[in-house]
Specification:
Phosphorylase Kinase, domain 1, 429 residues, homodimer, 2 domains, alpha+beta, three-stranded antiparallel sheet
Chain lengths: 429, 429
């Protein structure tokens, strides 16, 4: 085998190919013939192996030259492993202990060997099972604030940030996926779209909704042009791993420079969708009411922790070229610094709501849906859960500048979640 | 001489060093011993030569490894010639015939040989002399609309635009000049600042003005992070050359990706400052009243032409990834496209006013001032002209979201220009 030519790993070849890499063998065990290799990639894009040995276990992740979910008809460059590697390094500096430690990276083979989190499970599965996680909202809120603040011109050396913008802007193909699947496909009858049939009348109404389309595209313009900070870029509940009391963040291969509100909005959207999906997973009517309340409390806490930590960092780590302390605090203008912080948080809040709305809509009408809805076998019930999400999503996108607080946003979700189905009463054909 | 080692040109060496370059000699004449070489760089940064021969004349521009205005204590990388070269190529594609044609580029020597515009003069000098230029506003408005629209995600292939973002984001040192001199230095007592002494009380008031400082920094954040399009980056009236009926744009070495409103705002600001400076150049009281009216008419026309052409391009050349025709016009949603255009023009308008205000303030308080004011020998009169500019600038920055139209903005300038001096009546010590 030529190390300079990319070749996908397999269960059979992995031991031989990585056995001589000291940084890997020292984590798993020296005798690679004893390594226990399992392929566990349930994501949409990559090969993922758990490799166990006498010393421990690691994750081996390898990019494939195409989109795994679709097949080799949709090519996707291997360099996404390069972006994931660089994003993980930066996230680990900015929010230590939240993302997997990297043991080894091979750019040509598009392989990252990293820390294996056990017995953690993907949060999305946990949200279907109705399990609560202590401290999770706090970790997620802190992760957002720390990575998003510390990757921006509020904190970084300007030349370093510009170099990072240049590095990540080369991720053209993965950006294109987000630009297309998230911001464009949902708003017309694109080839890769699919939705639950009972939603037909709702979908027709949304696609005729000019205010929605225009606002969604303003958000797309922000996503494409507003390089505020290094984003995770795919920060949904499938990119979070949890135990009862530990929370980790994985899979930043979509990392790019974009607006701060994008990551936060995508995360809140996935919690709101999980909230609306609960009736599809309840053993009996109302059995998930308490769990739904917990999900809303998570949303409130994530946003609140984000704001508190972002404000703390603003006051104590504002070392970048924006709102320099020399011009604010050092001139006795502490109040001006607080005034500017308030404006920025208000902008981030409105962006967050908008991106949350866009995420809900694309996860219902575009290519990639969420397991919480997909696993509801009763199509009418699934459509009902999804329709409630769409209603919230549309409202968030169009009216994001008129929603006062996270309390109001959650109230809105609660009202939409609890009222009679609009699908059953009038629109189901 | 080693071609691989940078060496500044001189009047004596230029002929020998460029004489063998066919692309240059074919424009000037084959016998370089007959070339007539003059150094004419009156700018702040570079060597500029006019070279004449039997066949014609060219401009030879060479970057120096420091800021010429300040000296070698302020180093500045030679690669700015690279950015100017790439910007000129793109501007010439996007607004053909408005910028100098390039004959030759040497990256190591940081030399660009380009078209010599004669008998054109720098517009700023013309504005002091009180000369009018036919068709100028139209050319400038079209130049803004065409370069700014066609360098954005509204028009470009997304991958090409991302490659251009990566290319220009490497211009760290020139960005730093704008970030510092335009957006930060004016708002505190920075080392390189200077201002007309009679402005002391006005300057003290501005530097204590928290609303102004906060808004100026929001505009700085937009400038640093909002990579909407390739800007000229230094689009003032010293970067425009004119005859009675021809208008050209030069010197885009500060080119970068930034917000559309930045170029337009900087240009309008320099016209407004020229408006306020007229009493300092009038032979008798009121002698420049008609010329002042002409300047305001230029401002109105530049903005109007910009809007009309931007709208035309929006309707006919929207081939990028933003507001795709497939999702708008092709769905019968022409109105949605117009709605989105209206929102974007409104955003650009408010940005334009804000950046105009910031430009006026920095050209009065920071390192680089404008000749129209500097040439007024009577310090009290100069301060009065400058104070009127500062008053408009502060208003534009803080109240940019509440100024309805270019008519209103010009009315404001007229009122500020015509009332009694606030300096003389109360504040002069």
């Amino acid at each position: 085998m030529d190390d300079k030519i990319y070749e996908p790993l397999s269960i059979e070849t992995l031991g031989a190919r990585l056995g001589n890499v000291e940084a890997v063998a020292s984590k798993i065990g020296p005798d690679n013939s004893n390594w226990d290799v399992k392929e566990v990639g349930d994501g949409n894009l990559n090969l993922v192996f758990i490799v166990k040995g006498e010393l421990g276990s690691v994750i081996v992740k390898q990019a494939l030259p195409y989109v795994r979910l679709v097949g080799d008809s949709w090519p996707l460059p291997l360099k996404r492993a390069f972006f994931e590697y660089h994003a993980l390094i930066r996230q680990n500096e900015r929010a230590p202990g939240t993302v997997p430690e990297i043991y080894y990276f091979d750019e040509v083979q598009a392989i990252i060997v990293m820390e294996f989190f056990a017995p953690h499970v993907i949060l999305r599965h946990s949200l279907m099972a109705g399990k609560k996680h202590h401290g999770m909202a706090n970790v997620l809120g802190l992760f957002c604030a720390r990575t998003l603040f510390r990757g921006s011109d509020l904190s970084m050396d300007a030349a370093k940030r510009k170099a990072d913008v240049a590095l990540f802007v080369d991720s053209v193909e993965l950006c294109d996926i987000t630009e297309t699947l998230v911001f464009s496909d949902p708003y017309f009858d694109a080839d890769r779209n699919h939705h639950t049939p009972q939603l037909d009348p709702v979908v027709a109404r949304l696609r005729a909704d000019i205010d929605l389309k225009v606002e969604a595209h303003h958000l797309k313009a922000k996503f494409c042009n507003n390089a505020e900070t290094m984003l995770h870029g795919d920060f949904h509940t499938g990119s979070v791993m949890v135990t009862e009391d530990e929370t980790k963040v994985i899979d930043p291969e979509f990392a790019l420079y974009g607006p701060i509100g994008f990551d936060v909005g995508m995360l809140l959207a996935n919690f709101w969708m999980a909230y609306f999906a609960q009736p599809g997973h309840a053993d009996s009517l109302g059995a998930r009411a308490d769990y739904q309340a917990w999900i809303l409390s998570v949303i409130e806490e994530v946003w609140t922790v984000f704001c508190v930590e972002f404000s703390r960092l603003w006051r104590h780590e504002r070392t970048g070229i924006l709102y320099e302390k020399t011009l604010f605090e050092d001139q006795g203008h502490d109040l001006a610094s607080e005034q500017a912080l308030g404006h920025r948080l208000q902008d981030i809040w409105q962006d967050t709501l908008g991106f949350a709305g866009v995420e809900i809509i694309r996860r219902t009408l575009s290519l990639a849906h969420i397991a919480e809805n997909d696993m509801i076998e009763d199509e009418a019930l699934r459509a009902d859960c999804e329709a409630r999400g769409l209603e919230l999503g549309r409202h968030l996108v169009v009216n994001r500048k008129g929603i006062n607080s996270i309390i109001c946003a959650n109230d809105l979700a609660r009202v939409i979640g609890q009222r009679n189905s609009t699908l059953k009463s009038g629109e189901k054909q």
